[in-house]
Specification:
globular; 5 helices; alpha/beta; single chain; 19% helix; three-stranded parallel sheet
Length: 217
């Protein structure tokens, strides 16, 4: 089984960031123009050109290929988020079985080193944090299409379209766990409704149930 869980807004306080060649930290947001001024930091989107003609996304990928560059002290994705569920899923399913769906970066393997960022699909977020349909993102898609399944997705309806896009063509069975009364539109996927009264971040509760063996997927 492979598990994909959506990202979280709250990052650990020791989360690192990408740095410019001049040593200036980079704060990643969905819309730098609308963001409040950030003293001493560069505001950027992941696919903006950073330095040497490379985008910040490419700089991040290069850093993961050679993490010896001490300018970027980045946590692994499963360590980045404050909620311990990301670490627990990785402990259970391993780095090759646990993935995170990030609104800023795409479908990330849990051991991929990540900078702190402030990007979400939530419609309740500040405009400068909100990624909108049609925005240009060159998302990572790290889940191998030939992976054995099933692939279980734990996340809100706002993140579902990106999950479907980045796993399109996978030969594995895809299982979408959802909370709402309305059945989501997820062509080619098996659907499983998770019964809970929790409204916000219900997918953490679903992940706990999965770890206990109480989520029959």
């Amino acid at each position: 089984m492979l598990v994909v869980i959506q990202c979280a807004a709250t990052k650990r306080p020791e989360a690192g960031c990408l740095m410019s060649e001049g040593g200036v930290p980079v704060t990643f947001v969905a819309d730098p123009v609308k963001a409040p001024p950030s003293s001493g930091a560069i505001l950027a989107r992941p696919d903006d050109v950073g330095q040497d003609g490379r985008t910040w996304r490419q700089i991040l990928a290069d850093h993961n290929d050679d993490p010896s560059n001490s300018r970027h002290a980045l946590l692994r994705a499963y360590e980045l988020y404050a909620n311990p569920i990301y670490r627990r899923l990785t402990e259970r399913f391993g780095v090759e079985g646990a993935y995170i769906l990030s609104a800023g970066w795409g479908l990330i393997r849990s051991d991929f080193r990540m900078p702190s960022y402030d990007i979400t699909f939530s419609g309740q977020a500040d405009p400068w944090k909100r990624r909108r349909k049609g925005d240009d993102y060159r998302d990572f898609a790290m889940l191998p299409l030939e992976a054995d399944g099933p692939i279980v997705f734990l996340g809100s309806k706002d993140y579902l379209p990106l999950f479907l896009k980045l796993t399109d063509g996978s030969r594995a069975e895809r299982i979408v766990v959802y909370r709402s009364v309305n059945v989501p539109d997820a062509p080619g996927c098996k659907l499983h409704r998770f019964e809970t009264r929790t409204m916000t971040n219900w997918h953490y509760e679903a992940a706990e149930a999965l770890l206990r063996g109480a989520l029959p997927v």
